[in-house]
Design a protein that fits this description.
By secondary structure, the protein is an alpha/beta fold. It contains 20 helices and 31 strands.
Length: 709
Amino acid sequence: MSTHTITATVPSYVLDQWWTPAEDSRTAEVRDANTGEAMLRFGAEGLDLGEVLAHARAVGQRELGALTLHERALKLKELALFLNSRRDELNALSHRTGATAVDNMVDIDGGIGVLFTYSSKGRRELPNSNVIQDGGVEPLSKDGSFIGTHIHTRIPGAAVQINAFNFPVWGMLEKFAPAFIAGVPTIVKPATPTGYVTEAAVRIMIESGILPAGSLQLISGSARGMLDVMDYRDLLAFTGSASTAQSLKAHPNVVTGGVRFTAETDSLNAAILGPDAVEGTEEFEAFVKAVVTEMTVKAGQKCTAIRRTIVPEGQREAVARAVSARLDSRVVLGDPRAEGVTMGALASLDQLRDVRGAVEELIAAGGELAYGTLDAPTVRTASGEEAVVEHGAFMSPVLLSWADGDAEAVHSREAFGPVTSLLGYTDVAEAVRLAARGAGSLVATVCTNDPEVARELTTGIAGHHGRVHLLNRETARSSTGHGSPMPQLVHGGPGRAGGGEELGGIRAVMHHMQRTALQGSPNLVTAVTGVWQTGADRRIAGSPDYGAEAGNVHPFRKSLAELRIGDALASDLRQVTQEDITAFANTTGDTFYAHTNPEAAAANPFFPGTVAHGYLLVAWGAGLFVEPAPGPVLANYGLENLRFVTPVAAGDSIRITLTAMKITPRVTDEYGEVAWDAVIHNQEGEIVATYHVLTLVEKEDTLYRGWTG
């Protein structure tokens, strides 16, 4: 093993500058996982964590708060593109952690993909503001002068993330992306063995010039004491061991101080082979492939890897043979820098000792070694030679077969490496029971082509798992896999898995925001939310009450620069005749009896006789509010929340009131979205229908300025 003196220390990035501890401070040594060569030191002795946190709360909050949700989401896309252009640097460095090209795709490409996904979802699903109205409005007074709703606003502190060694890039970015969109600054504390890869990613992010000051800080070393300076304004997101999570969760500032805490920890995930998926079926083949993939990607160092492979007892030997054969034919163990290597080293020698120790315990508890060895394996070195590398953290894949599927150790001891245990079950109920013995897991795969088996297994295990992956011949090629959390879906699990929740699309953004009940008058609630509320003031075009200013025009003649929340149009009445109803029925083919058969319609308790089609009323509503000349309104792209309230009979009349409810400029386009509140009334003033009309409107009236027809 190399013993030369290391002078380089992985720096931290704090207070918007790079910082390195004093030379005589305590630091940890980091080695190349493939060769054991000493590379760097890692430490943060002397760093004032309170000052780091204060900088995030002050500078980071201020600079992020100057941007809207959409502006921050767009910066994530810019950051993803910049990181993508420097991906080769990160890949080369990551090879030193034992990561292969496939591993880097999962970690580095996957992390960049999270940025792209959150950028897109943030701009598509959130308002271009800093307040999100959550849900509808509750009337709190009879006259409508006092209403209530809920809003989301960002928490006023920092998001501190403590990450595991296995995903130095993805682990950081999947937490950073939703916090950044929410407008909450992030402090990153990576694990020591692979933290130099995180530091390289942060350095690239800082060099991009895209990030606002204070929005991202990095602690390359111990962050012990961070919880001491955190309070209810802050959030701590932890990924790592269950024991460390429990220690953090017991801190007074979490228990009584209000620090928001989420954890993703140990997980004895399961894969269940359905009784129909016998040897020779496509499901059997897909199952074996999934098990081997989860044993070897990242050398099995994944919180989502398959630890318990649960199969029909009669298939246990067949599965063992098939897994062994696939390992023999597909796995080339060695230095990822060598051509043809498909599985690299574990992240460190300490990790190698831990995994070997766990396997020894499992064997002592009844596991039989069905594949692999605990001896140092022969591997392919960086030069392409086959050799036993004395100081590399290499380990053979290990398959343990259990005669007793109820052995306590297999359901409680995790070997965090290329290891899985093979258990047999007699019926579906027993498979459910065995899976549940993991006491809470991140994910389970159910492999079957039998819908009833899929239903029984899923409903039986879902309460114990954060995600259930259904695998059959239809998804074998398209599935993203058992072990790949997707940014659109929740990542987390109950019980042993930590009880936390990450990702899940916009849900993760909301985790960094406070949900607050808001009560007040429609005008004041409109002012806070940026969404027009029923009962709030509005300016009806053409009304004497509007005033004589230039804005007193049809709202469809206004660009986003001119349009304001509350700008409205009230139409005249239009009478509905039986001839209109019949013509619409004949033209559309909708000859439902309520529109065409007076006797049958009268017998229906909902109708007074034949009534107008709801869609006829909506179509006429458009005719009553549309301004036909070309102008700032470019397109109608849909309706939302359509409800028909009061039927309209022949002889009745309708009118419509259209109000600009929500205006969302798009940061990347020359137009934005306007949601209009539409209410159709009859001649008696009763509400006939309510809905929202969605239009695309120019930011500036440029395309048809001066149009005369």
